[in-house]
Amino acid sequence: MVIVGGGFAGIHAAGALKDMPVSVTLIDRRNHHLFQPLLYQVALAVLSPADIAQPIRSILSRQKNTEVLMDEVVGIDVTARQLTLGSSARVAYDYLVLATGASHSYFGHEEWLPLAPGLKTVEDALEIRRRVLLAFELAERQMLEHGWHPPLNFVVIGGGPTGVELAGAISDVAQLYMKHDFRHIDPAKSRVLLLDGGPRLLAAYPEDLSTKAEETLKQLGVEVLTKSNVTDVGPGWVEAEGKRFDSAVTLWAAGVQASPLGKLLGAPVDKRGCVIVDDRLNPPGLPEVFVLGDLAHLEENGRQIPGVAQPAMQMGDHVAKIIAADLEGRPRPAFHYFDKGDMATIGRMAAVAKVEWPFKAHMSGLPAWLTWIVVHIFFLIGFRNRIFVFWTWIWTYFTFRRGARLITGDQQLPGWKERTKAGRVEETKSRAAD
Hints:
The chain is an alpha/beta fold. It has eleven helices and 26 strands. It has two domains: about 1-105 and about 255-330, FAD/NAD(P)-binding domain (3-Layer(bba) Sandwich), CATH 3.50.50; about 115-255 and about 340-420, FAD/NAD(P)-binding domain, CATH 3.50.50.100. The longest helix has 25 residues, at about 120-145.
């Protein structure tokens, strides 16, 4: 059996197969499993990458029937049941699990990618951290040299959970965690704008939680602009609904598209590139192929199952049940998604949560935030990671200090030089007029 992808679905599938008489090969182009729900905390300097990532080999090291290959799948021959890897090696399979997730979607505007990075990988998180922290440093330097600096505006595009979490965390950074660190600028005067094309934030959540999230963000100083479709993104600015907003840092959280690997199967896909599967997680006519997680389009009770961690983990576990049924000659069981709820953190001591199990409730504020903490600590892989993350949160909460504020890479931001130059011209004209 070959599993492609070391995310939630792939790791759960491999783990559930550990005691079965099957040989498992897990292939991933990265060597680590990433706990994506906490990735934004790496981006905003709360956690380090090692706190939310674990080597795949380490996770599966005690599974005698499992091997791990760090490589990339570039071809799938469903007739010969064979994969082609980036290293030119070929791997045969009896069963194939595809769980390669999703990436950013810029809706046909790929030129926006270097101007507005999204958040899917450790590399993305480090780039966002670099840009956010660098904006304050450049403003401090500019203020010292010339007595002014371009506006410190942070624009987040997309009002889903990632966008809400990023906007709230940036506001916390500016107003709480950096207020004593600079001598020439006031970080608290920064603007955080959250743009979304829909009528409300967190569209997949109940309306009362969506409203509460927007109210909380506004209390944190975030400017929420709904019904604001972004029409253009440039170096140092964003255009939406005919208005142009200056932007020191622009972040993308507006859309995702499925991994291109799904299209190599030749099976039907939806508009996002997700492979359409049945309730046994198989594409049409391919009973030996399972597609899981963000890469799968599965509908239940007339609604598509969301591409988040919960269903991905459950799909991974369910594949093992199907393999067990095949080995024992039993009918394959159908997959049913057990929705335990959804939650999104907004800022310090603020979150919203729709709880479906073990009881039904809509929560916000401190109770939702504490629930969010407990759930995320529980699902982190590795005892060390749980201890480190919990201790870091305690330290950050009581000391207002963030321990991962490192800027790596170059010291440039898109459009900063142009905005600085334009500001100097305006300043010169103003002095001449006086």
